């Protein structure tokens, strides 16, 4: 059951934490175009979500196998989406987890997105709330990636926001990124948000901006973010970044709980 001891309201852009039953608050100049309040039970809504499936490492040498429509790894209960990473043998891997995507069911060119979530904890966890271009085929990093929230468990409480494109990405040492401290990110829900337009990308936690990336208008290599983009939610295990200091095998299972996802676009 959803509950809060106190209602915490934020005046900036109309953000608020919600108690049991509350209608989404629309920020000024925006209208709600897509949302999931996770009010059902069982598997996530197939009208809104599908799954990336596999255990090939996902370009980061990750340890988990992402399963397909398996309630042990992704389910809706008590008003929340639960993504759960489990230590168990599966298809040659030692861990299972889930990676939910909206591609083909929710794709947006410029939007404001709010995800209220509580993160997993422990060395080896690597949860993410992020976006990829919905191009077919998709070319990384050329077509664009935006990381609204990443957290690696060996650096507890520090959340990161980043963009990736052909001109700016980590493998060539040009990545544009920033981070901020959210000390209770694994004990309390926080609102991780992005507002992106043709001019800039702004990433925030609880209404406080911590990363801004401005369109330098030098071409597609630096700004592919006019593509329609979709949302991804997942917990990775280990990998080049999440497992940089090893994986604590005693902490599992670990969950990311998502209270809601709300997508707004300007009227």
Task: Explain what you see.
The chain has 267 residues and is an all-beta fold. It is 1% helix and 42% strand. The protein has a single domain (29-250), classed as Jelly Rolls, CATH 2.60.120. It has one helix at 239-242, and strands at 30-36, 50-51, 64-66, 74-77, 80-90, 93-97, 99-101, 111-118, 125-133, 145-150, 158-164, 176-181, 190-196, 200-205, 208-214, 229-237, 254-266. Strands 1, 3, 4, 5, 6, 8, 13, 14, 15 and 17 form a ten-stranded mixed sheet that branches. The relative contact order is 0.24.
Mean pLDDT: 92
* Beta-strand fraction estimate: 35-45%
Give the biggest sheet.
10 strands, mixed
Please identify the top-level CATH class.
Answer: Mainly Beta
Number of helices, counting only DSSP H or I runs of 4 residues or more: 1
Low-confidence stretches: 1-22
Helix content: under 10%
CATH topology assignment? Jelly Rolls
Judging by the overall fold, what is the CATH architecture? Sandwich
End-to-end Cα distance, whole Å, is 34 Å
Count the domains: 1
Query: Using only CA atoms, what is the Rg?
Result: 17 Å
The total beta strand count reads: 17
Record the SSE blueprint.
Blueprint: E1 30-36, E2 50-51, E3 64-66, E4 74-77, E5 80-90, E6 93-97, E7 99-101, E8 111-118, E9 125-133, E10 145-150, E11 158-164, E12 176-181, E13 190-196, E14 200-205, E15 208-214, E16 229-237, H1 239-242, E17 254-266
Parallel strand pairs: 3-6
Antiparallel strand pairs: 1-17, 2-7, 4-5, 5-6, 5-17, 7-16, 8-13, 8-17, 9-10, 9-16, 10-11, 11-12, 13-14, 14-15
């Amino acid at each position: 059951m959803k509950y809060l001891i106190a209602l915490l309201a934020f005046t900036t852009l109309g953000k608020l934490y919600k108690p049991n039953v509350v209608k989404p608050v629309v920020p000024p100049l925006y209208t709600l175009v897509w949302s999931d309040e996770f009010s059902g039970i069982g598997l996530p809504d197939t009208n809104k979500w599908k799954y990336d499936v596999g255990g090939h490492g996902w370009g980061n040498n990750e340890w988990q196998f992402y399963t397909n429509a398996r309630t042990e790894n992704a389910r809706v209960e008590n008003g929340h989406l639960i993504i759960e990473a489990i230590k168990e043998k599966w298809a040659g891997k030692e861990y299972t987890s889930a990676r939910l995507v909206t591609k083909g069911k929710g794709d947006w060119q410029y939007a404001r997105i709010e995800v209220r979530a509580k993160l997993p904890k422990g060395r080896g966890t690597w949860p993410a709330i992020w976006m990829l271009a919905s191009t077919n085929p998709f070319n990384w990093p050329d077509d664009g990636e935006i990381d609204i929230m990443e957290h690696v468990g060996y650096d507890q409480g520090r959340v990161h926001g980043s963009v990736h494109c052909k001109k700016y990405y980590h493998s060539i040492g040009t990545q544009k990124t920033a981070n901020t401290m959210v000390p209770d990110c694994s004990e309390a829900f926080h609102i991780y948000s992005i507002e992106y337009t043709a001019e800039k990308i702004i990433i925030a936690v609880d209404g406080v901006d911590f990363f801004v990336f401005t369109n330098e208008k030098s071409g597609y290599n630096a700004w592919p973010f006019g593509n329609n983009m979709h949302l991804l939610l997942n917990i990775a295990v280990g990998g080049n970044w999440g497992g940089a200091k090893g994986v604590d095998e005693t902490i599992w299972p670990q969950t990311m709980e998502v209270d809601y996802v709300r997508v707004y676009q300007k009227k």
